């Protein structure tokens, strides 16, 4: 869940420091309590006993009492005066003094760089924008040209350091938030490696800014400036037209190198090494890795059924943005390692896929919605051929493919198609009410939906699920996310009452619901204020490793420590100002990915799971979630107005 933010157009962000020694311009009069000339505060190190008490509380809903007793003993051992708990804390405090953000590097490696799973589905989210209606390829390229102008308009703000500073709307209202990830979106790249990937800073000042255009599985370098002046919409249209015409001939028989970015990270690292032995291939990789972003001009979306109506199915559009729908569709027309990946299909579906290690959804959504607003507010001139400048021709990247790389590509196609075929993808658009209803009940819409997810999981699986919900900690220097956990004892008590496992009247169920919502709200507040347990537990583990005691402390070898990080519900709220939605896959084989967007009068939820797990079913979960929403409304309306008879 992203922190509520309020962009302040009169503030600016300085990117002169490689760390986050960011300074802000003078504050607007409405938030004069914040001295924006000073760096943001550092992320605090939470109190050890508070973290471990929360740890035990959350574990109590998912492990047996026997397992919990063992964990209690290990916690008590860690909390002994003068024991290892104090030494680990001291290590974290020293690290906090020496760094801008004591957990950031550990978190980045643990969350992303060490991940060996393929990026599509497992890590990169997809996002579907409002559907366009193209009558032909000319309209596709016209729209793409205007959208590129919108993105380039945002790039100007990045270059000038004038992106409006986002501010907290609650909990220390008006506090500025870290904007670093906004400024790194166009200058970062995730390069595969063994045993971990690297996050590269790219696009040196000596290069003319350019993008990569993917068309019919081929990649083209397209400069977006000429003699220091940005290309106009009509110039971009002309250049894109040249790419499309050439790709019709060049795609036949040429290798689909892009599919290599869709496989296991270690396999891709090995394949990349083989590919880069050729000098031209190495140059191509360097060109792609240093581009601003990738634009994929896709073939039409593949309908999930043979009915004509399926061609306009937004669920199919979401799948297209998430993974490309297979190597015979659009998956080979991707380069998943690049942070920002704009996708525009011949049939009007459009959206993005983005590499997640650089930025959260809120930064990439703002970037893209800036372009969507630009498209809406500017009259098109893409077919106006008044330009007279002699532009550099787009350059097709030509690859030298050995028999080894041919084998790598064939294997990648096989593995990627199997991965895509295994994804159970379901979109729920709940139209009975939206975020305005929980607000009318005095409940946070986010907390309300989180409780609905807990109720739904329990209905289907008969137990609580360890739950991950991203929570912004951007009010701190280099802040990214911690985790709001919804599987509380209060939620468990309410769920059991709702399902008749414990006897309760309607009024009692409503009271339990309010208690669970209040617990969720309190945990959310503590987390965004830097008192969450996930970053802290990660820090304690890494501190133990650096001090050489990781394998000798029972706390870390306890199965409960593994269980606390096994998220069968991976969730996130990604709000938008347009009729768009984001989606991603589960993070464990027997789990669900649930990304939701609460609009004022409806709620959009994308549910994903894997077909090869017999215990999960995305469609069943979506139907049950719809039922949960209806049950919760009934409880709120009846329980909040008890009978006087």
Keywords:
645 residues, alpha+beta, Chloramphenicol Acetyltransferase, 2 domains, 8-stranded mixed beta sheet, 6-stranded mixed beta sheet, 20 helices, 42% helix, 13% strand, disordered N terminus
Q: Your description of this structure?
A:
- Helix 10 (314-323) links the parallel strand 8 (294-298) and strand 9.
- Helix 3 crosses helix 17 (534-546), helix 5 crosses helix 7 and helix 16 packs across helix 20 (618-639).
- Helix content is 42%, strand content 13%.
- The protein is an alpha+beta fold and 645 residues long.
- The strands form four sheets. Strands 11-5-4-8-9-10-1-16 form an eight-stranded mixed sheet, with helices on both faces. The protein has a six-stranded mixed sheet with strand order 12-18-17-15-13-14, with helices on both faces. The chain has a two-stranded antiparallel sheet with strand order 2-3.
- The radius of gyration is 25 Å and the shape is globular.
- It has helices at residues 48-59, 65-78, 84-98, 104-113, 137-160, 180-184, 233-250, 265-275, 279-289, 314-323, 361-377, 403-421, 436-440, 445-461, 489-498, 506-531, 534-546, 554-557, 559-563, 618-639, and strands spanning 126-128, 188-191, 198-201, 210-215, 218-223, 225-226, 229-230, 294-298, 340-345, 350-354, 395-396, 423-430, 467-472, 481-483, 569-573, 581-583, 592-598, 603-610.
- The chain has two domains: 118-421, 2-Layer Sandwich (Chloramphenicol Acetyltransferase); 424-532 and 567-639, Chloramphenicol Acetyltransferase (2-Layer Sandwich).
- The model is unreliable at 1-32 and 306-312 (pLDDT under 50).
- The protein is built from 20 helices and 18 strands.
- It starts with 47 loop residues before the first helix and ends in a 6-residue tail after the last helix.
């Amino acid at each position: 869940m992203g922190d509520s933010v309020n962009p302040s157009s009169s503030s600016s962000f300085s990117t002169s420091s490689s760390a986050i020694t960011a300074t802000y311009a003078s504050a607007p009069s409405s938030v004069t309590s914040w001295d924006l000339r000073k760096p943001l505060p550092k992320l605090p190190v939470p109190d050890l006993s508070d973290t471990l008490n929360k740890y035990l509380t959350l574990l109590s809903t998912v492990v047996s009492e026997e397992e919990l007793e063992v964990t209690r003993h290990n916690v008590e051992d860690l909390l002994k005066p003068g024991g290892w708990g104090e030494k680990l804390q001291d290590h974290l405090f020293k690290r906090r003094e020496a760094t801008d953000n004591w957990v950031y590097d550990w978190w980045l490696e643990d969350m992303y760089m060490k991940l060996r799973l393929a990026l599509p589905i497992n890590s990169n989210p997809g996002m579907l924008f409002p559907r366009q209606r193209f009558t032909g390829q000319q309209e596709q390229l016209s729209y793409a040209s205007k959208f590129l102008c919108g993105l380039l308009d945002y790039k100007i703000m990045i270059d000038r350091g004038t992106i409006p500073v986002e501010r907290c709307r609650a909990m220390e209202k008006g506090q500025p938030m870290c904007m670093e990830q906004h400024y790194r979106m166009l200058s970062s790249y995730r390069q595969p490696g063994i045993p971990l990937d690297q996050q590269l800073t790219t696009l040196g000042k000596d290069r003319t800014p350019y993008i990569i255009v993917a068309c019919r599985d081929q990649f083209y370098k397209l400069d977006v400036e000429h003699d220091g002046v940005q290309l106009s919409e009509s110039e971009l249209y002309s250049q894109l037209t040249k790419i499309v015409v050439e790709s019709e001939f060049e795609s036949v028989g040429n290798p689909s190198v892009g599919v290599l970015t869709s496989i296991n990270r270690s396999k891709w690292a090995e394949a990349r090494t083989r590919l880069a032995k050729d000098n031209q291939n190495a140059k191509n990789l360097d060109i792609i890795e240093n581009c601003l972003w990738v634009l994929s001009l896709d073939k039409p979306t593949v309908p999930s059924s043979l009915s004509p109506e399926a061609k306009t199915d937004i669920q199919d559009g979401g799948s297209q943005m998430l993974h490309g729908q297979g190597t015979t569709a659009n998956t080979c027309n991707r380069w998943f390692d690049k942070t920002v990946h704009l996708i525009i299909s011949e049939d009007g579906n459009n959206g993005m896929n983005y590499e997640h290690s650089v930025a959260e959804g809120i930064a990439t959504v703002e970037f893209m919605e800036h372009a969507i607003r630009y498209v809406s507010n500017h009259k098109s001139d893409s077919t106006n051929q008044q330009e007279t400048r002699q532009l550099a021709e787009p350059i097709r990247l030509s690859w030298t493919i050995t028999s080894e790389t041919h084998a790598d590509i064939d294997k990648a196609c096989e593995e990627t198609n199997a991965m895509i075929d295994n994804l159970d993808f379901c979109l729920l658009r709940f139209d009975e009410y939206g975020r305005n209803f929980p607000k009318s009940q005095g409940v946070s819409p986010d907390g309300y939906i989180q409780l609905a997810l807990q109720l739904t999981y329990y209905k289907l699986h008969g137990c609580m699920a360890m739950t991950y919900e991203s929570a912004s900690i951007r009010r701190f220097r280099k802040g990214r996310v911690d985790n709001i956990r919804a599987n509380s004892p209060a939620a468990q008590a309410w769920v059991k009452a709702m399902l008749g496992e414990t006897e309760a009247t309607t009024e009692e169920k409503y009271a339990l619901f309010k208690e669970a919502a209040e617990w969720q709200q309190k945990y959310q507040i503590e987390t965004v204020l830097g008192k969450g347990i996930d970053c802290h537990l990660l820090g304690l583990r890494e501190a133990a490793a650096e001090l050489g005691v990781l394998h000798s402390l029972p706390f870390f070898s306890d199965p409960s420590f593994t269980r606390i990080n096994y998220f069968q519900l991976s969730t996130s709220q990604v709000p938008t100002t347009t009729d768009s939605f984001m989606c991603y896959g589960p993070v464990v084989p027997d789990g669900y990915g649930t990304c939701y967007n609460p609009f004022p009068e409806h709620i959009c939820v994308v549910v994903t799971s894997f077909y090869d797990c017999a215990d999960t079913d995305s469609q069943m979960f979506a139907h049950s979630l719809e039922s949960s929403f209806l049950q919760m409304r009934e409880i709120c309306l009846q329980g909040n107005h008890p009978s006087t008879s």
